[in-house]
Amino acid sequence: MDNSALIKELASFLRADQLLTSDEDLSVYAFDGTAMLHNRPACVVLPERGEEVAQILALCNKKAVPVVTRGSGTGLAGGAVPSEGGVVLCLVRLNKIIELDAANLVMVCEPGVLTQKVADEALAAGLFYPPDPGSIKISTIGGNVANNSGGLRGLKYGVTRDYIMGLEVVLADGQILETGNKCVKDVAGFALKDLFIGSEGMLGVITKVILKLVPAPASKKTLLGLYDDMTQAAETVSAIIENKIIPCTLEFLDRTTIECVESYAKIGLPTDCEAVLLMEVDGHPAEVDEQAAQIKEIARQGGAREVRLAATVEEGLRLAAARRTAFSALARLAPTVVLEDVTVPRSELARMVAYVQEVGERHQVKVGTFGHMGDGNLHPTFLCDERNEEEMARVEKAMEEVFSFAVELGGTITGEHGVGLAKKPFLPKQLGPVGMDVLKRVKIAFDPVGILNPGNMFD
Fold first, then answer.
1. Strands, DSSP E only, in 198-293?
2. Is the pTM of this model over 0.90?
3. Is residue 313 within 8 Å of residue 246, measured between CB atoms?
4. Which candidate, 303, 276, 279, 305, places its Cα nearest to that of 293?
5. How far is the C-alpha of 261 from the C-alpha of 264, rounded, in Å?
6. Which residues make Cβ contacts (< 8 Å) with residue 222, sequence separation at least 6?
7. Tens-digit pLDDT profile for residues 31-68
8. Which terminal residue of the chain, N or C, has fewer Cβ atoms less than 10 Å from its own Cβ?
9. Coil, strand or helix: which one is 120?
């Protein structure tokens, strides 16, 4: 595809530093955080204003050139892998917090703002932005919205969708749509903003976000449960929920992950147990004390050989930070790391954890499992070498079986990473023919020429 004419037109309104075409630059933007997927774009554009985004899309739509929107490129499903010869629309320079409106408990920001900055700015005002993906320090809020990201606090506080009050979106033809506002209640027309949340850049490009904030919790306690049996750890999660306790964090790490995290972070995690549960409760101090005591007893009754209570807030933060290093820690073990993402009803967690372990053994694939067990979201992580075709065939077979079993248990092939290029072969099994047809009709309605992330999610 010769896009030299397109590049020339883009150069008519973008500066040289906003339009990248060198081999070195194109190779950097040829992939995202997903293993094994890469395509070379024709160019990378770095707009600094929403109006520039509109100009770029209008031009690409006129010429039927594919556009893939990108933030920090931390996605794990191939959703930001460019189309061969297309345009990468990178939004990291739209990075301003426009307004923090404490009176209405909202923040208005551009899509390139880092998620950690959103959380820090809210906290400085005594407020709280709960969504916290594992990539919180480097992922952008626009990417979080486009993938409806979850995170460690999803059990109690929900996911990104629960904190989006409004969006400004540039449509495929360059028109600018504003949907939602600062109002707590608004049922005027269809809830269009919800279509764009989790749409993986296939329906429009987000250029402004109105975020809901909540008061910061007054107190927090962190516990660590140690288990010699992974199934008992999974059953403890179900027992905590059955006792009507909703922790803000309820995280699981298997032995492989524990050993890697401890080697990497060196914070004193025990490496002689089969699983650990990281459990946090927050809220009013009296409620926090009561729930921490209840969880400690439930974990002991559920088979935990030991339950540790973090002595200080700082120790609790260190434990949570260590959990966030799981992906990086596991990546040290193998040239290729395939971090997957399935979610099942919490009552099926024990079966799912056992099945992942059994699949790894049967296919002779090394796998570490960690995840947000409180909301049923697991991350089986396959450690392999993409240069070994025979090994990768076994990995593919193992992943396919894990996805199929999750759907059989009433679960989903993705709880927070998205479908992207990596999981689109498995989507029809979950949604069925009618579900797939509706997705395609929505796509055609918003993007009739088909320039936005073509081939993502479905062909």
1. 205-212, 214-215, 219-227, 249-254, 275-283
2. yes
3. no
4. 279
5. 5
6. 249, 278, 279, 280, 309, 310, 315, 316, 319, 320
7. 998 988 999 999 999 999 999 999 999 999 999 999 99
8. C
9. helix
Angstrom distance (rounded) from CA 107 to CA 151: 20
Contact between 17 and 63 under an 8 Å Cβ cutoff? The reply is no
Nearest to 133 by CA among 263, 118, 235, 267: 118
Query: Distance between CA atoms of 251 and 377, rounded to whole angstroms?
Result: 9
- How would CATH label the architecture of 334-408? 2-Layer Sandwich (3.30)
Q: What is the pLDDT of residues 396-432, one digit of tens each?
A: 999 999 999 999 999 999 999 999 999 999 999 999 9
Rounded (10°) angle between helices 427-446 and 389-408: 90
- Going by DSSP bridges, is the β-strand pair 87-90/43-45 parallel, antiparallel, or unpaired? parallel
Q: Can you tell me the distance from the alpha carbon of 368 to that of 285, in angstroms, rounded to the nearest whole number? A: 35
Q: Are 43 and 68 in contact (CB under 8 A)?
A: no
- Farthest-apart Cα atoms in the chain, separation: 69
| Nearest-angstrom CA–CA distance, 68 and 312 | 45
Q: What is the CATH code for 97-215?
A: 3.30.465.10
Here the tokens at position 411 are 């679960």
Between strands 275-283 and 19-20, the pairing is unpaired
Residue type, 402: V
Same fold, 97-215 and 219-327: no
Residue 237 identity: V
For residues 378 and 252, what is the distance between their CA atoms, to the nearest angstrom? 8
In this structure, the strands spanning 377-384 and 342-343 are: antiparallel
Where are the chain's structural domains? 4-90, 97-215, 219-327, 334-408
Residue 267 is which amino acid?
A: I
CA 386 – CA 393 distance, rounded (Å): 10
- Which pLDDT band holds residue 109 (cuts at 50, 70, 90)? very high
Topology (CATH level 3) of domain 4-90: 3.30.43
Q: Which residues contact 402 (CB under 8 A, 6 or more apart)?
A: 340, 342, 355, 356, 359, 380
Residue in the block written with tokens 């927050």: 282
Sign of CA dihedral 419, 423, 425, 427: negative
The amino acid present at 165, given as its one-letter code, is M
Fold of 219-327: Alpha-Beta Plaits (3.30.70)
